């Protein structure tokens, strides 16, 4: 009941005319930027993060939430119409959505995706309201060894589930941890990796890192391959669904959140795994198996609902533990830090109005998203016709303006370019970007928690595993690390038994 009354207070904050305006602006901006090919939610949020700096925190985060969900909707639009997923979570939408668009059913695919986002977001946010305060209450008792164990879990998990190999994921994480070391040591005050530059003494702003790795790196990568890529927008009418389409999709919309939300809430869960699981589930349960691969509407509705619910799940661990599980959540955590607010167990007590206003704005944003974007789908489709040279030139311009606005120093532009080149190199050698961003954000905090845990135990390493919670987390870490090694012998044994029975 306490959560319900807090949510009602949050609606009182979110439904004020000013905050309602910021929610609508966020939804429109997020969709407009997210719909452009190759950008996706993470880059959209990173690009538009500086836009919120002039606002007071509550209005800024309400606008930010609108950008988040709007960009997710835009990413699925690009995936369906252009077969160009903005991020890995939108890949599944292209599998069935793009064949639907090519066969003249792009309107139905967009409607299934939009309503799926609405249903998944609504159900996922209800779960967020129910679970987040309880998780926060439990997290109050977590100490330094437990926090460090959770961050190790996030590091290991994110390097294991992303990219083509664990080595590349680990290399990306090390790049992020190195960038996070730049600046003054929090405990001793000594300079680290500043090369004698006073401008680097405060460290590299996370926003510059995120914009550099996502926006600049992607723009340089696309520019290097511009002649090899081409795409034309598929014409689309007003999204609508017939009675038969609704009959085939309503169960998919309801099943998606049950798969997506739990994976979003766990460290390094993200939306990639649940969207694929939802796709496989819908394929198995479908009565129209001959349509799969050619444009089955359930293959759009279920995964998109799971993806949206997963986004709500990411906010549980981000708000209550300060652990981002996706690239967008990592940038959102950077936004909190830019306002001097540290997400964690005490956030619901110290910033109650902001948190519940933000959660209530998610409901408002989902309604606005559905109301505004269904009729505006033809407009978003026209944005896809912008020539890519102009598109990415604009991205470079806004990224530079945003980075300069962070600190007002010319050296920030130099740092932005250097990090952009690092992002380009990471794409060239297949290194995922997310571990680097999480390394920059969580690295300094992990170091601080490690030092505190060692100080409490007088330098004894056993102090890192002196609680049942930390032991449990390290057991999960060991399982993640050793699972590929254990899986191969198990498969070999299973195959030998099968061959013996045959």
From TrEMBL:
<keyword id="KW-0812">Transmembrane</keyword>
<feature type="transmembrane region" description="Helical">
    <location>
        <begin position="144"/>
        <end position="163"/>
    </location>
</feature>
<keyword id="KW-0472">Membrane</keyword>
<keyword id="KW-1133">Transmembrane helix</keyword>
<feature type="transmembrane region" description="Helical">
    <location>
        <begin position="389"/>
        <end position="407"/>
    </location>
</feature>
<dbReference type="InterPro" id="IPR002823">
    <property type="entry name" value="DUF112_TM"/>
</dbReference>
<feature type="transmembrane region" description="Helical">
    <location>
        <begin position="169"/>
        <end position="188"/>
    </location>
</feature>
<feature type="transmembrane region" description="Helical">
    <location>
        <begin position="20"/>
        <end position="49"/>
    </location>
</feature>
<dbReference type="Pfam" id="PF01970">
    <property type="entry name" value="TctA"/>
</dbReference>
<protein>
    <submittedName>
        <fullName>Tripartite tricarboxylate transporter permease</fullName>
    </submittedName>
</protein>
<feature type="transmembrane region" description="Helical">
    <location>
        <begin position="315"/>
        <end position="336"/>
    </location>
</feature>
<feature type="transmembrane region" description="Helical">
    <location>
        <begin position="463"/>
        <end position="486"/>
    </location>
</feature>
<feature type="domain" description="DUF112">
    <location>
        <begin position="20"/>
        <end position="437"/>
    </location>
</feature>
<feature type="transmembrane region" description="Helical">
    <location>
        <begin position="61"/>
        <end position="82"/>
    </location>
</feature>
<feature type="transmembrane region" description="Helical">
    <location>
        <begin position="109"/>
        <end position="132"/>
    </location>
</feature>
<feature type="transmembrane region" description="Helical">
    <location>
        <begin position="356"/>
        <end position="377"/>
    </location>
</feature>
<feature type="transmembrane region" description="Helical">
    <location>
        <begin position="200"/>
        <end position="224"/>
    </location>
</feature>
């Amino acid at each position: 009941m306490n959560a319900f009354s807090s949510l009602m207070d949050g609606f009182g904050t979110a439904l004020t005319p000013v905050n309602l305006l910021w929610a609508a602006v966020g939804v429109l901006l997020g969709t407009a930027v997210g719909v452009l090919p190759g950008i996706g939610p993470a880059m959209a949020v990173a690009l538009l993060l500086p836009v919120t700096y002039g606002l007071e925190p509550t209005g800024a985060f309400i606008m930010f939430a609108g950008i988040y969900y709007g960009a997710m909707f835009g990413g699925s639009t690009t995936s369906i119409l252009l077969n160009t997923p903005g991020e890995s979570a939108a890949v599944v939408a292209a599998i069935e959505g793009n064949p639907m668009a090519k066969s003249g059913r792009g309107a139905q695919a967009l409607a299934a995706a939009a309503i799926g986002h609405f249903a998944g977001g609504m159900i996922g946010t209800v779960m967020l309201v129910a679970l987040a305060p309880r998780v926060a209450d439990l997290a109050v008792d977590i100490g330094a060894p437990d926090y460090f164990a959770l961050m190790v879990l996030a590091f290991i998990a994110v390097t294991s589930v992303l990219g083509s190999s664990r080595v590349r994921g680990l290399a990306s994480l090390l790049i992020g941890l190195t960038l996070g070391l730049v600046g003054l040591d929090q405990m001793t005050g000594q300079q680290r990796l500043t090369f004698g530059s006073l401008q680097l003494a405060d460290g590299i702003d996370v926003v510059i890192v995120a914009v550099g790795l996502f926006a600049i790196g992607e723009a340089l990568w696309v520019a290097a391959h511009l002649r090899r890529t081409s795409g034309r927008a598929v014409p689309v009418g007003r999204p609508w669904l017939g009675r038969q389409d609704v009959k085939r999709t309503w169960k998919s919309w309801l099943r998606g959140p049950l798969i997506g939300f739990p994976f979003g809430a766990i460290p390094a869960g993200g939306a990639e795994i649940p969207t694929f699981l939802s796709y496989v589930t819908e394929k198995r349960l479908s009565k129209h198996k001959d349509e799969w691969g050619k444009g089955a509407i359930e293959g759009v509705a279920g995964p998109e609902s799971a993806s949206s619910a997963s986004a709500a799940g990411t906010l549980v661990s981000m708000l209550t533990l300060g652990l981002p599980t996706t690239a967008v959540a990592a940038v959102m955590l950077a936004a909190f830090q830019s306002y001097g607010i540290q997400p964690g167990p005490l956030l619901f007590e110290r910033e109650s109005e902001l948190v519940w206003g933000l959660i209530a704005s998610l409901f408002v944003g989902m309604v606005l998203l559905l109301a505004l974007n269904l009729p505006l789908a033809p407009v978003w489709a026209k944005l896809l016709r912008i020539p890519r040279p102009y598109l990415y030139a604009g991205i470079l311009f806004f990224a530079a303006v945003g980075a300069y606005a962070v600190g007002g120093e010319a050296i920030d532009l130099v740092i932005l370019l250097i990090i952009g080149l690092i992002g380009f190199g990471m794409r060239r050698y297949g290194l995922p970007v997310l571990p680097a961003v999480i390394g920059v954000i969580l690295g300094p905090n992990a170091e601080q928690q490690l030092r505190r845990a060692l100080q409490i135990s007088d330098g004894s390493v056993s102090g890192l595993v002196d609680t049942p919670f930390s032991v449990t987390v390290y057991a999960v870490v060991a399982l993640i690390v050793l699972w590929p090694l254990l899986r191969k012998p198990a498969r070999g044994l299973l195959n030998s038994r099968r061959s013996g029975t045959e």
